[in-house]
Amino acid sequence: MQRITRIVAVLLVSGVLGACGTEQAPSSPPADPGGTATPSGAAPPPSTPSPSLNPQPRTTFPQTMAAWVRATYQGDHRYVGDCREARPGPGAVCAKREATVDGGVVHGVGAPSSEIDAYVYAREGGSGWRIVDEFTPSSDMYGPATEPTPAWFEALGRGY
């Protein structure tokens, strides 16, 4: 008898849990002749979550650069901030704002108190900053550029 009771209890609980919801959005109730789908006296549900209830963190420029440095540089490199304020150190990589071009910002990237090795083109959008493109110009250290010079870099007028 105990075994049957457990089986029935499991079926009842699983049935209740199964009815709790699905991954699909709930279907809205049919509209009444007045043209609304809410019961009289009830406020309509909000169409989108309130920003104060579900704040989405925006990606800051330093967070974006830190992720880019980890993905681009090999070893234990880390982003240490603006090159004008950054101190040299093992694996330190900084960024220096160069110009605003076509709604984005160009930053030179390299070791603090050293030459710039590469450039990134970043834009700020609804979710924060993102790196749109990157470019390493020709240099004695890296040799000729391996890709065509992007228009955003040409706008700097560096003549590499």
UniProtKB/TrEMBL annotation:
It comes from the Bacteria. The keyword Signal applies. Residues 42-54 have a biased composition (Pro residues). Keywords: Signal. Residues 22-61 are annotated as: Disordered. Residues 1-19 form the signal peptide. This is Lipoprotein. It comes from Micromonospora halophytica. The lineage of its organism: Bacteria, Bacillati, Actinomycetota, Actinomycetes, Micromonosporales.
